Amino acid sequence: MAKIRSSNLGYPRIGKKREWKKALEKFWSGESTEAELLKETKKIRLEGLRKQQEKGIDLIPVGDFSLYDQVLDTSVMFGIVPKRFQNNGGKTSLETYFSIARGTKDAVASEMTKWFNTNYHYIVPEFDDAKPFLAENRLLTFYKEAKEELGIEGKPVILGPITFLKLGKGYKQAEFPQLLQAFLPLYIQVLQELQEAGVNWVQIDEPIFVTDLSQKDLLEIKQAYEAIAKAVPEIKIILQTYFESISSYEYIVNLPVAGVGIDFVHGDSLNDLCEYGFPKDKVLAAGVIDGRNVWRQDLESKLGLVETIGQLVDKDRLIIQPSCSLLHAPVTKKTETTLDPIIKDALSFADEKLEEIVLIVKGVQNGKESIADKLEESKRAIEVLNNSKYRTKTAGQMNADALNADRELPFAKRISIQKEILGLPLLPTTTIGSLPQTTEVRKQRLKWRKGDLSDREYEQYIENEIEKWIRIQEEIGIDVLVHGEFERTDMVEFFGEKLNGFLVTKFGWVQSYGSRCVKPPLIFGEVSFDKPMTVKESVYAQSLTSKRVKGMLTGPITMLNWSFVRDDIPRVDVLNQIAVALRKEVEELERNDIKIIQVDEPALREGLPLKRDKWDEYLNEAVHAFKLSTASVENSTQIHTHMCYSSFGDIFHAISGLDADVISIETSRSHGELITTFEENTYDKEIGLGVYDIHSPRIPGKKEVTENIKRALKTIPANRFWINPDCGLKTRQEPETIAALKIMVEAAKEVRNAQLYVQN
Question: Of 311, 492, 572, 584, which has fewest CB within 10 angstroms of its CB?
Fold first, then answer.
């Protein structure tokens, strides 16, 4: 009988209860040694491998585990260490590895940006004057570890050469072929060493193949994989793609590899397969379980999908797997002991997705009757949720289509009204929103959640923190203040706890960047406004000062993109439900005399479809939802928004279309490169380009900040420019935050005085 195999593409590295995060931060703070860190993370890594083994996965990935980021791992493996960090010419030390990601006192961290259209951030490789060499074959190390420790014949995973180089910076497009030729021998060396060790399967990740590729790209891809195939004929390579259907499908699936991994959840892969077929000499690794969402799969439907695929591809050449790495899913739902059973039964986290994969394989292999009870169970769980009170439309729910989504006056007219009312100086200073959340803040929140603090005691503590930081901001001389968001956990999770239709889990963590983990809320039902969510703290902060305090909200597209969204209705319908709910909160803030309201959209760019022909629809929906949230305010109320770590050139016109009065954007880690977008395009509203990096513990020098400001002012008029850090300050320590903000304000005042002199 033909045998179908199961596979996984990657497993969450953070541990069931974020043990990985705790181990990293303990090491960074000097509370543990390097040996202790490596011992603890090995334990977490082996636990993940053991789970996959026990679930019955045939092809278990090794090498997907990381101490920070898999792209950074690839850079370091090939000796790509920026010149500003010490490089001993051999294996990179752990200290240097973390310095590249986090920066040092004397060196700015490497740029960080979003991994395709996810909320995961990778460290951008820097290829300036690259002289790559194989510093360490980490795949071989992890392969041997899995085999020796657990008896697992693992499937090493490596980021492919095309994707790796395309995601990097520091070279001209015309130099790409030469750069590729410099790296190919190193990739081949890695694969040859794996081949000599007896490795059967290797997964080479090339997600860039789902984006739009040129004919030149395709030729370079073909030449690269022909060279690899010739050098390592005995190893079976699965060319793995995900997040969308493959561009240039016929070309890619005919590359000289043993198998191709295709995402059958996102995009139109089934249509491609039906129309163009699949090579008879290759294995198809079919991603049929959604690796990026948390909802239980309809196993009956998935079996039907696999049966359709099986009519086009012989079953002994079929592998069943998730659509992408399970890095993007929480570890297990077993720890969610307080959820309503209706919702919990309809969930599937990483561990449960592995079980679904194995069940599908069993069902196809042995017939539906072999898993009849599981088929009925999955069907019933989904139906119960879909027919529950949670998904019944609320009576009298506002129709988004009937609401005005345009401000009364255009920006050019309303900005003069705002300037007169707000009375801000030239080059006003502000922060993005959050201020340091110390260990003590988190302890007090935990005590309150456990019932060890009363509501009033906790509110009093938060008010004390707000007052302390209002005074600090006044003393530093910041012009527009923030209340600090000490009452908030995460910028989406906080609202997820307060809006109808959202739910926050207890342990549903996923990695965002570095040790930073977030708990994306579940959007499981109809979203609607319940009661004011941010007004109390904003009004209290404003009562403490004569300066203006910004109201702080998370925008609708970010709340959608950073949540696990119900999959039974179109995403745009959910987006507009969120927008209408936030509109009511904006109106509540304005009603309470909060005249500057920031509606953050850091996830707008990351949600951009990977294929350009889908961009317009997405951006139009995103712009409409943002305007729907903010358009009802008076002309005198100033709307701000914030975005970070994105390729803004791609969405420049959409940014303008948001019609926000002020937008703040990260520019520090990219060393001012984002300013080129505004050098090449005319932006007619006010803007703040982040003048120092908050994701690094280093304190910037005043000269560095001043230079960032001056470069921006070559392009942006001083009367439209704001000065701010590049992102929120929640993760930073108090002393470094105060020191950095003082430098920022001093630099702003110096440049302001010079600008006033010039203007006079």
Answer: 311
